[in-house]
Amino acid sequence: MNFKGRDIVSIRDFTKEEIIHILNVAEKMFPIAKGEEKSELLHGYIMASLFFEPSTRTRLSFEAAMKRLGGSVIGFAQPGTTSVMKGETLADTIRTAESYCDVIVMRHPMEGSARMAAEFASVPIINGGDGAGHHPTQCLLDLFTIRKEIGSIEGKKIALVGDLKYGRTVHSLAYALALFKAEMIFIAPEQLQMPKEVVDECMKLGVEPEIANDITNIEDIDVLYVTRIQKERFPDPEEYNKVAGSYRIDMNLLKNAKDELIVMHPLPRVDEISPEVDKTKHAAYFRQTFNGVPVRMALLALVLGVVK
Length: 308
Hints:
CATH superfamily of the largest domain: Aspartate/ornithine carbamoyltransferase
Shape: globular
Number of strands: 9
Low-confidence stretches: none
Strand order of the largest sheet: 7-6-5-8-9
Number of helices: 11
Distance between the termini: 6 Å
CATH class of the largest domain: Alpha Beta
Number of domains: 2
């Protein structure tokens, strides 16, 4: 497979076989990501990190990925320090940035911005999140985590919990899990349930998700994927207040869980997972966060053509 020069905008742009290949390359990157091995694979390459929206894990893990492979990073984490504040368009920012780098990683609050940036850029664009749209690298690290933690993705029972309407991570993940024929349960308040188009997409791929509002029955679940109720995505603060704190994963809930159940979360969390869960064998979310490094290392190396 040849990924050289390819944009990473949406998980929907990839086949199941391509996703498996990315995960396999990420597995090879794991000891480098851990610092157990050294690499100069991307020595001489420059990544531009353009973050128009706040980020901790995505931005830092991309920078760590690039530097672990011997590359360099330029960019910004605050658009207020750039010419965007002078009225510069996204297209012009992209055209400028590509003059200084070999690959661009971008997060932007506007849905569809990454696809638009890819139209203007001559270097690969990697989408670090575009509004409530897509977050393909988060989806890939989630798949990598599931495979690494419980051995496989196929046939597993996975519950997606919380804000399924505005949560871009679960939109991409639901599609990818359907590709792998995983069994899915969508657990959310009615007003935050998974968008119909995502459900329809899963069904076209041969998977019919179960729709639920209740989280009490988890005995046969393999993965509990919890999401934050995203206050910043709500157009009406009153609507947010109605659903804030709808679900909470605590020790009382987990007493009925399988021994091998893992709890995942894209982070940041607010109060949806009790801190006491952190010390249990079920808590996979901090390992999940680390897995962003080998996965993003794999993507950078693939789109820059240094591995195939």
